[in-house]
Amino acid sequence: MKKFLSLGISMLLAGQYAQAQQKPIGGFTEQSSAEQLKVEQQFDQSLSAERIGETIKQLSAVPHHIGSPGSKAVADIILQKFKSYGMDARIDTYYVLFPTPKTRVLELTGPTKYIALLKEPALKEDATSGQDGQLPTYNAWSADGDVTAELVYVNYGLPDDYEKLDAMGISVKGKIVIAKYGRSWRGIKPKVAQEHGAVGCIIYSDPQDDGYSVGDVYPKGAFKNEYGVQRGSVMDMVIYPGDPLTPGVGATKDAVRLDRKEAPTILKIPVIPISYHDAQPLLSAIDGKVAPADWRGGLPNTYHVGPGKATVHLKMVFNWNQVPAYDVIGMVKGSSYPDEWVVRGNHHDAWVNGAGDPISGQAAMDDEAKAIGDLLKTGWKPKRTLVYCAWDGEEPGLMGSTEWAEDHGKELQQKAVVYINSDGNGRGFLNAEGSHALEGFVDEIAATVIDPETKVPVGERKKASEIVNAATAKAKTDIMARKGGKLGALGSGSDYSSFLQHLGITTLDFGFGGEDPGGEYHSIYDSYDDYRRFKDPTFAYGVALASTAGRAVLRMADADVLPFDFRSLAKTINTYNTEVMDMAEQMRTNTALENQLIKSNTFQLAADPAKGLKTPSPKAEVPYLDFAPLQNALHKLDKSTSDLADTWAKTVKAGGDHDAFNKKLYQAEQQLLSVDGLPRRGWYKHTIYAPGFYTGYGVKTLPGIREAIEQRNWMEAQQQIAIAAKSIEYLADYLSSGTVVPTP
Length: 744
Description:
This protein has helices at 2-20, 30-46, 49-59, 69-84, 159-167, 188-195, 207-210, 276-285, 355-377, 394-397, 399-407, 409-415, 439-446, 458-469, 473-481, 497-502, 528-535, 540-558, 566-599, 602-606, 628-654, 659-666, 703-710, 714-736, and strands at 88-110, 114-115, 139-140, 145-153, 176-180, 200-204, 232-233, 271-274, 311-332, 337-347, 384-391, 416-422, 428-434, 507-514, 689-691, 699-701.
C-alpha cells in the first residue's frame, strides 16, 4: 500500500514541477530566461563530485580550529583556489578572544572514586583520529572554576525539566548538574543551570539518542561510540554572537574591547562535555528519587535524579587568548550593477578535522566558485557583483562572519541583495530556510535540481518525505494540496545570523541531510574516512548543494527584476500571528483549569506519596492581549504586497533597466528591524525571526511577542505587539511607495 501511495504522490508532484518549468524563470523575460538556462547548464557541467571529494580530503587533512596553524593553511588554500578561478581574492583578518583548556579535571569523589578519561582514542580505521594539534574535549566559553558538589541529573537541562525538578522538591542550588545532549542547543543547558544556582554543568551524549541504541557505532557504523564526545561552544549567543569583547563592532586590531569579566555571553560556571563511557559511573552513583520515565536513557543502570551520596569534583582552567580569524573573501565585479552584491558563505574552521562540519559544505561552495570561474573564461560576466566568503571562527560563536558583517554593516545594508549560506552537508533531503519573500524563488530552483538517488527534483523528493511522515491524514492532504515547498524560518547556529537578524539582509540557508547519521559530530571522528563511508560516499550530494546554491547565486546575479514575492512573507507572518494569538488563548484556558484543580486539591489527591510531588502554586490569570494593532498592520501588508506583485509582473514584462526598483526590493527586509532590538538582547533587531532565548539554534518567530507570552510578561507582550505592528506597517508603507511601474 505504501509503495502505491508513494508512486501516486510522485506522479502528482512530478506533474506540478513539470508545469512549473514551462514558465520563464521568475524575474527574467522569456529571452533572458532562455539565456539563463543555458548558463546554468554550463555551470552544472563544470561541477565534479570527484573534485568535491578531493577537496574534502585536502581541507580535512589536519586539525584546523580558529587560531591554529591548520586554520591559516586552510585559509591560504582557499585563497589560492579563489584567485585561480579569476576572483579578486583577499584575506580579511579579525582578532577575537578564543579560550582553550589548559586544565580539565572531572572525578567522582563519592561514594566511590572514578577519574574521567576525557579523551577519544585513535582508531586504526580512521587515519586522522590520532593527529597532533587536535583540541581536547571541552566546551568553549565555560568559566574557569574549581568546584566540588553533589551531583543532580537534570534530563536535557531545559526549563521544563527544572519545573519538574521543582515539583519533585529538588533544587540544584550549589550542586553540579549532569544533562544529556539534545533537544536544544548545548549552550542552553549550562545557561539554565546557572540561572537555577548550579555551580557546574556536565553534558554527555546518551546512547539512546545517537549511540548503540539507534545503530552500530563507529567504526563499524555511523553512530557515536562510547568514547565519542561532542565539543562545542556554550557562548550565550542568544544575547549576541561573535567576539564577546566587541559587540556590535568589527574586532579589528584597534577596536575598543570590553573587559572579559564584563562580557555577558561568557558563562559564570565551569562546563565540560563527556562521553557516555565517562557518564555511566557518575549516573550509576546518583541515588535519590528514580527519574521520571521520559527522562531515562539507554545506559544499563537505573536513572536517579539525586542529590545524595554522589559528589563530583570539576576543575576547568583556560588560556584566554586573542587569536586571528581569517575570512577569505573572493569577488567577481558585476558588469551592470557593481554596487549590488550577491553574498555567498560557508565557514572553513572546525573543532578538529571537520570533514562533515564544515568542509563538506565548503568543498561544495568551492566547486561553485570553480564553475563560475569556468563561466568567466567563456566571456560570461554576472550583472551583479558576486562575493564568495569562507568564514573562520564559526564554531566558537559565528565569529568570522559576525565581525565582518559588523565591520561592513552600513555598506552591506546598501549593497547586499541577498546572503546565501551553507554549512555541513550530507545525504538525503534538501533543507531550505530563510526569508519568506524568497519562498517562490527557492521552489523554482528546487524544481530544477535533480536528486542523485531518486532522479527526481529535490523539491519533489522533499515534499514526498513531508507527506509520508506527516502525523495525520489532514496534514498529508494539506501538504499534497500545497503548491511548492515550505521555506523554514531561521534561528541561529550558522553564519547567516548577522546578515538577517542584525542587518536585515534577505537570507537563505541550504543543505542536504536526513539519511546520514551524525554520531561523529564535533568529535575527532568527523574525518574524511567517516565521511566517505557514512555521510555521502559518492560526494553526489556535494554536487546537489553546489547546483542548488549556485543557481540561487546566478539567478540573483542576473535577474532583470529581483525575484522577491512579499505575498509569501505576508502570508507567513499572518500564520505566526495566529499562532501567538492561539498560544495566549490556550495559556488562558490552561491556567484557569489548573487553578481550579489546585483549589479542589485534585493534584494532591492524584500524587503518588512515594514520589513526593509538590502541589503547584496557583498562577496569575492570563489577561486579554490586544492584537488589533498587529492584525491591522498585517491587513495593510496584505494589500501592499498584492499591489506590488502586480507591479512586479508588469515590470518584468516591460523589460529594460530597473535598478532603482530592484534596490527597493532588496532593501525591504530592513524595514522589519526595530531600533532597540529585542528585550534584553538588543543586538537582535529583526521583529519576525530570532533564535529563542531558551532554544538557541531553534527559531522563535515574532520573537518579542512569543517569548513575552511564554514568560508570562503581559506588559512586555503588549509592548512587543505594538513594536512588531509598527515594523510591519513600515514595510507595508515602504512597499506601497514602490508600486508605480518604473520607466524602462
